[in-house]
TrEMBL record:
Family: Belongs to the TRAFAC class TrmE-Era-EngA-EngB-Septin-like GTPase superfamily. Era GTPase family.
Species, as recorded: Triticum urartu
Biological classification of the source: Eukaryota, Viridiplantae, Streptophyta, Embryophyta, Tracheophyta
GO BP annotations listed: ribosomal small subunit assembly
Domain (G) ranges: 5-97
Protein's UniProt name: G domain-containing protein
GO-annotated molecular function: GTP binding; ribosomal small subunit binding; rRNA binding
InterPro entries according to UniProt: GTP-bd (IPR006073), GTPase_Era-like (IPR005662), P-loop_NTPase (IPR027417), Small_GTP-bd (IPR005225)
Superkingdom field: Eukaryota
Length: 101
């Protein structure tokens, strides 16, 4: 059995770190710089007859009005359009960043 899982969320949410952790090896680059992942990274976890494919995606960036910044529009559009392809989606939030008082 095989399952595809997409990992989406804002830049620096920790998507690449999660991908590396679940797969158990360093497949995706982790960095403090935003947009370190410029295209989808596939990490595969195999347990017996089950295979889970994790797709680490570039960050979904939106400006103040809810639209992508111009220079990254293409990249963000490809990230959004690929959302439909996965069996399951993991949406990551950096809780520390969003809930800080
Ligand atoms: N404090 C803390 N930092 C983390 C954690 N996970 C990732 N980071 C750091 O957050 C930054 C962005 O992580 P990354 O996985 O590249 O995020 P991505 O842009 O969503 O792929 C890196 O500097 C990581 O070392 C975590 O659980 N706690
Ligand atoms: Mg990343």
């Amino acid at each position: 059995m095989s399952l595809s899982v997409g990992i989406v969320g804002a830049p620096n949410a920790g998507k690449s770190s999660l991908t590396n952790t679940v797969v158990g090896s360093k497949v995706a680059a982790v960095s403090r710089k935003t947009n370190t992942t410029t295209h989808e990274i596939l990490g595969v976890l195999t347990e017996g007859k089950t295979q889970i494919c994790f797709f680490d995606t570039p960050g979904l960036m939106l400006g103040h009005h809810g639209f992508p910044h111009r220079d990254v529009t293409v990249r963000v559009e490809s990230a959004w359009s690929s959302v439909n392809l996965y069996d399951l989606l993991i949406v990551m939030f950096d809780v520390n960043r969003h809930l800080k008082m």
